[in-house]
Amino acid sequence: MLTEQRANQIKHDLQGRIAAIAQTRGRLSQRQLVEDVDAIRSVAQNHGFTTVSCLAGKLESAIARDSGGSTLLCFLDALHDAVKLEPMRGSAQQALLASIALRMG
Question: 22, 25, 49, 99: which could form a disulfide with 44 (CB 3.0–4.6 Å)?
Fold first, then answer.
Protein backbone atom coordinates (compact mmCIF):
# COMPACT_ATOMS: atom_id res chain seq x y z
CA MET A 1 0.00 0.00 0.00
CA LEU A 2 1.29 3.42 -0.93
CA THR A 3 1.72 6.11 1.66
CA GLU A 4 0.02 9.40 0.90
CA GLN A 5 3.41 11.04 0.42
CA ARG A 6 4.55 8.37 -2.07
CA ALA A 7 1.22 8.51 -3.92
CA ASN A 8 1.62 12.27 -4.26
CA GLN A 9 5.17 11.82 -5.60
CA ILE A 10 3.90 9.37 -8.21
CA LYS A 11 1.05 11.71 -9.14
CA HIS A 12 3.55 14.55 -9.55
CA ASP A 13 5.75 12.34 -11.76
CA LEU A 14 2.79 11.28 -13.91
CA GLN A 15 1.53 14.86 -14.25
CA GLY A 16 5.01 15.92 -15.38
CA ARG A 17 5.12 13.18 -17.99
CA ILE A 18 1.67 14.11 -19.29
CA ALA A 19 2.60 17.81 -19.45
CA ALA A 20 5.81 16.99 -21.32
CA ILE A 21 3.86 15.11 -23.99
CA ALA A 22 1.37 17.97 -24.29
CA GLN A 23 4.15 20.52 -24.71
CA THR A 24 6.06 18.54 -27.34
CA ARG A 25 3.16 16.80 -29.07
CA GLY A 26 3.78 18.27 -32.53
CA ARG A 27 7.47 17.47 -32.44
CA LEU A 28 7.40 13.88 -31.21
CA SER A 29 7.68 10.99 -33.62
CA GLN A 30 4.93 8.41 -33.34
CA ARG A 31 7.47 5.99 -31.88
CA GLN A 32 8.58 8.47 -29.20
CA LEU A 33 4.99 9.31 -28.39
CA VAL A 34 4.14 5.64 -27.92
CA GLU A 35 7.22 5.15 -25.72
CA ASP A 36 6.31 8.14 -23.57
CA VAL A 37 2.70 6.98 -23.16
CA ASP A 38 3.89 3.45 -22.42
CA ALA A 39 6.14 4.85 -19.67
CA ILE A 40 3.08 6.54 -18.12
CA ARG A 41 1.12 3.30 -18.38
CA SER A 42 3.95 1.33 -16.79
CA VAL A 43 4.44 3.72 -13.86
CA ALA A 44 0.69 3.81 -13.26
CA GLN A 45 0.34 0.04 -13.45
CA ASN A 46 3.29 -0.57 -11.14
CA HIS A 47 1.79 1.66 -8.46
CA GLY A 48 -1.87 0.66 -8.67
CA PHE A 49 -3.17 3.66 -10.59
CA THR A 50 -5.50 1.44 -12.61
CA THR A 51 -7.54 4.14 -14.30
CA VAL A 52 -4.43 5.97 -15.49
CA SER A 53 -2.96 2.70 -16.74
CA CYS A 54 -6.18 1.85 -18.57
CA LEU A 55 -6.40 5.27 -20.21
CA ALA A 56 -2.74 5.18 -21.25
CA GLY A 57 -3.33 1.79 -22.86
CA LYS A 58 -6.31 3.15 -24.77
CA LEU A 59 -4.23 6.14 -25.87
CA GLU A 60 -1.53 3.78 -27.15
CA SER A 61 -4.19 2.03 -29.23
CA ALA A 62 -5.46 5.37 -30.56
CA ILE A 63 -1.91 6.37 -31.53
CA ALA A 64 -1.48 3.04 -33.35
CA ARG A 65 -4.62 3.91 -35.36
CA ASP A 66 -2.91 7.22 -36.13
CA SER A 67 -5.61 9.32 -34.51
CA GLY A 68 -5.29 13.08 -34.83
CA GLY A 69 -4.01 15.70 -32.43
CA SER A 70 -7.43 16.41 -30.98
CA THR A 71 -7.69 12.79 -29.85
CA LEU A 72 -4.29 13.06 -28.18
CA LEU A 73 -5.32 16.21 -26.33
CA CYS A 74 -8.58 14.62 -25.25
CA PHE A 75 -6.74 11.65 -23.79
CA LEU A 76 -4.08 13.84 -22.16
CA ASP A 77 -6.83 15.87 -20.47
CA ALA A 78 -8.49 12.68 -19.27
CA LEU A 79 -5.16 11.30 -18.03
CA HIS A 80 -4.55 14.53 -16.14
CA ASP A 81 -7.98 14.24 -14.51
CA ALA A 82 -7.47 10.57 -13.70
CA VAL A 83 -4.13 11.21 -12.00
CA LYS A 84 -5.76 13.80 -9.76
CA LEU A 85 -8.64 11.46 -8.89
CA GLU A 86 -6.70 8.23 -8.25
CA PRO A 87 -7.49 5.95 -6.52
CA MET A 88 -10.80 5.72 -8.33
CA ARG A 89 -13.74 3.36 -7.96
CA GLY A 90 -14.89 1.31 -10.92
CA SER A 91 -17.99 3.41 -11.51
CA ALA A 92 -15.95 6.63 -11.57
CA GLN A 93 -13.51 5.01 -13.98
CA GLN A 94 -16.37 4.04 -16.30
CA ALA A 95 -17.76 7.59 -16.14
CA LEU A 96 -14.36 9.02 -17.09
CA LEU A 97 -14.05 6.60 -20.01
CA ALA A 98 -17.57 7.52 -21.13
CA SER A 99 -16.66 11.22 -21.04
CA ILE A 100 -13.78 10.53 -23.42
CA ALA A 101 -16.11 8.73 -25.80
CA LEU A 102 -18.46 11.72 -25.72
CA ARG A 103 -15.65 14.22 -26.33
CA MET A 104 -14.40 12.24 -29.31
CA GLY A 105 -17.84 11.88 -30.84
Answer: 49
The number of domains in the chain is 1
φ and ψ at residue 65, rounded to 5 degrees: -80, 0
Tens of pLDDT, residues 48-70: 999 999 999 999 998 988 767 78
Q: Distance between CA 96 and CA 102 in Å, rounded?
A: 10
The whole model's pTM is what? Answer: 0.88
In sequence order, what DSSP letters do the residues of 8-33 get, joined into one string?
A: HHHHHHHHHHHHHHHHHTTTS-HHHH
Angle 55-31-53 from CA coordinates, rounded to 5°: 15
**Per-residue pLDDT tens over the stretch 26-55:** 898 999 999 999 999 999 999 999 999 999
Quote the domain boundaries for residue 50: 4-104
**Is 76 in contact with 33 (CB distance < 8 Å)?**
no
